């Protein structure tokens, strides 16, 4: 019985303390010894997807005895974030007294057009008061409301972003001129915008063109904050592999954004990219060369041909399959792929040039080719095929089923 009576006394004391604390906060509010305010920035002319700041300010002429807790509400269609875990601490003078101020902030992103009702936000406080001592409890901000609209200028657009600034950049890790089949280059694109989240930034297309394969990496998303200014970045990169010679063009891309500072539609453009991979240029009529120039030209060509023959006779090139095997033995899948591309580039067996994929498919080694390409150019690598698989890639077959002559490592001619 004594134990039960003690427990009841303890519970009663706890309830009495909680009621006294809550009443103490209400008393401080009523006597203007504690203030709680909240407002929206901006409060009007808001568009869908625009950042709206819910600012909450707590102030006292004394000081705070502990941290302030915030219980953010949930509103359908409204993305609510808290970028800063700490308050902005201020002080100001009023009627000869110094008030200590804590300012908190939540970022709101309306995901649909229409009206939003923002319920009160619960704040947990600990305030030191001259008469009551340390007073703890919970208070709520006032309910707020706002509307989000879709401007007529962007209503017909499939995707657009609401931000005060947006920039788009791209770079390449090598020159895009004079490429040959088997060459690879990496394209990196960065999209940067302010007062949005990285998840809201659109994905830009890394197109795969016939004869130009693409291996995209996973995008990198980053949210930065500096003195209350939020910046979002999206980085995406892809490795392109030239499979057939030609002239390629990566098309222009546009990102539409509504400038929330000026209230107008703007466009950020990722320019088109021209890629020279050794296409044959069509003959064009030209004026006949004078006779003496023609003689000089023939002499120069003869000397160049003689030099090439002498060099070939004195420096026997290594066989491509041997190079590919050596590359695989040291874990260099990209060098092995280049060796195979070099062989395909020198032996066009059907009208047009064959890609590594098409040659492997004809030989029944499509899986080995995909393994090699993934290991050479993929973002996460892969399992490299063995030498037997490389040999199958080299043995392209004619429609009748016979292996095509002139393989990667041709054997000695039969007698």
Task: Describe the overall structure.
This protein is α+β, with helices and mostly antiparallel strands and 415 residues long. The chain folds into 3 domains: 28-146, Immunoglobulin-like, CATH 2.60.40; 152-277, no CATH class; 315-394, no CATH class. The protein has 7 helices and 22 strands. It has helices at 2-30, 291-314, 320-329, 333-346, 356-362, 366-377, 387-394, and strands at 35-41, 46-47, 52-60, 63-64, 69-71, 78-81, 88-94, 97-110, 114-118, 122-129, 133-140, 144-149, 161-163, 166-172, 184-194, 212-216, 220-226, 229-242, 246-250, 253-259, 264-270, 273-277. Strands 1, 3, 6, 7 and 8 form a 5-stranded antiparallel sheet that branches. Helix 3 (320-329) runs antiparallel to helix 4, helix 4 (333-346) packs across helix 6 and helix 5 runs antiparallel to helix 6. The longest helix has 29 residues, at 2-30. The protein is elongated, with a radius of gyration of 36 Å.
């Amino acid at each position: 019985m004594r134990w039960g009576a003690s427990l009841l006394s303890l519970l009663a004391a706890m309830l009495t303390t909680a009621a006294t604390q809550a009443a103490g906060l209400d008393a401080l509010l009523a006597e203007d010894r504690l203030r709680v305010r909240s407002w929206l920035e901006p409060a009007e002319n808001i568009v869908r997807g625009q950042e709206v700041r819910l600012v909450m300010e707590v102030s006292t002429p004394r000081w705070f005895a502990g941290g302030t807790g915030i219980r953010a509400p949930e509103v359908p269609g409204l993305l609510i974030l808290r970028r800063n875990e700490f308050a902005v601490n201020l002080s100001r003078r009023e009627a000869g007294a110094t008030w200590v101020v804590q300012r908190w902030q939540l970022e709101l992103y309306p995901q649909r057009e229409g009206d939003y009702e923002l319920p009160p936000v619960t704040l947990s406080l600990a305030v030191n008061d001259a008469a009551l001592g340390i007073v703890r409890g919970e208070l709520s901000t006032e309910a707020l409301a706002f509307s989000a609209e879709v401007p007529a200028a962007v209503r017909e657009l499939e995707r657009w972003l609401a931000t005060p600034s947006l920039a788009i950049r791209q770079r390449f890790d090598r020159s895009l001129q004079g490429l040959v089949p088997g060459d690879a280059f990496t394209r990196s694109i960065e999209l940067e915008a302010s007062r949005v989240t990285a998840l809201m930034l659109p994905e830009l297309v890394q197109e795969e063109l016939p004869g130009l394969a693409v291996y995209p990496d996973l995008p990198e998303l980053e949210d930065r904050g500096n003195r209350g200014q939020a910046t979002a970045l999206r980085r995406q990169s892809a490795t392109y592999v030239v499979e057939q010679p030609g002239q390629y063009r990566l098309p222009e891309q546009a990102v539409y954004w509504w400038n929330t500072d000026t209230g107008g539609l703007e466009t950020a453009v990722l320019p088109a990219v021209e890629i020279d991979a050794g296409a044959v240029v069509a003959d064009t009529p030209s004026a006949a060369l004078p006779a003496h120039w023609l003689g000089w030209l023939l002499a120069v060509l003869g000397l160049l041909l003689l030099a090439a023959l002498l060099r070939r006779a004195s420096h026997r090139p290594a066989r491509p399959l041997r190079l590919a095997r050596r590359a695989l033995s040291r874990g260099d899948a990209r060098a092995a792929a280049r060796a195979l591309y070099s062989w395909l580039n020198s032996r066009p067996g059907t009208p047009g040039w064959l890609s590594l994929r098409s040659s492997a498919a004809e030989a029944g080694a499509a899986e080995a080719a995909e393994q090699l390409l993934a290991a050479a150019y993929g973002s996460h690598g892969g399992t490299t095929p063995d030498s037997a698989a490389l040999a199958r890639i080299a043995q392209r077959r004619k429609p009748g089923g016979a292996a095509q002559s002139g393989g990667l490592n041709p054997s000695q001619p039969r007698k």
